[in-house]
Amino acid sequence: MARRSATREAKKLKDKWKAKEWYSVVAPMMFNRAKIGETLADEPEKLLGRTIEVTLADLIGDYKYMHIKLRFKIVDHSTSEAYTRFIGHDLTSDFIRRQTRRKRTKMEGVFDTVSKDGYRIRIKPMAISDKRIQSSVQYQIRKRMDELVTKMGEEHTFSEIISLILTSDRTKSLGNVIQKECKIIYPLKRVDVRRLEVLEMPSGDDNSEVLSADLVPLPAEPGDEPEPEAPETEEKVEDIKEKPSEGVKEDKVEDTKEKPSKGVKEDKAEDTKDKLSKGAAEQVK
Asked: Considering its fold, how many domains does the chain have in total?
């Protein structure tokens, strides 16, 4: 009996960590399949549904994007990799606290929109003014925000919306568009998209569209750099020398037709002299 109990206790104390394996978590195609991190699992099926949070600075290697947090969800796996889908982003709380000061007004809104390719997303912009403003003015600003977010969803795809929110160029960002449009109502100090959530996505879509490189500075994949092409200037010069253009040939032919040779002119002059001499001789007779 004692031996049986000992074997049972040994089975219970078996190290479960030895049965687990490391899986590399990979970002979707819209982020160039960059490596997010690693995770452990004893069965690959247990990876599905896990959410991974990483900052944009860790993804692209630029520290000034440390305040932007991206969220990914594992939807598929292979023997050693776990593939994810982008489900939203958020701003860190310390960044939001740095923007708010005394005698300022912070206005937030929650707006739902549907992108051109069928994604239903929830966008939460945040606007900050230099001074305290009345509630009626805040209502007009939120109303204008709702109109701009709805219009953006109708005119852009999901990847384009993400590019406009995460862009490094403030002049092309969604926050700058809202700030310019609301300037008529009240001048705002700063506008940011505090949070984005993907509520519903079309079936069979895996965020395969790549973000625009001029908006979001994504890391380039190794081996994607184009090879320099060989210069073709010498070959082109040789072709021009060997094969003159048809227009040049036609011009030369026309010149020969318009300008007869000197020998032809001299023959004609001699003929006219002979004719004149014969006519004079006849008259003398």
From this structure: 2
Helix (H) or strand (E) holding 112: strand 111-114
Residue 118 C-alpha from the chain's centroid: 19
In a domain, 246, yes or no: no
pLDDT digits (tens, 9 = 90+) for 216-268: 555 444 445 445 454 444 444 455 445 544 444 444 445 544 444 444 445 55
Residues paired with residue 88 on neighbouring β-strands, in sequence order: 71, 197
DSSP element (H, E) containing 196: strand 190-200
Q: What's the whole-model pTM score?
A: 0.66
Same domain, 57 and 127: no
Of the two residues 163 and 205, the one the predictor is more confident about is: 163
Contact yes or no for 204/24 (Cβ under 8 A): no
Domain that holds residue 30: 20-91
Query: 217 by DSSP, 3-state: which?
Result: coil
Length of the chain: 285
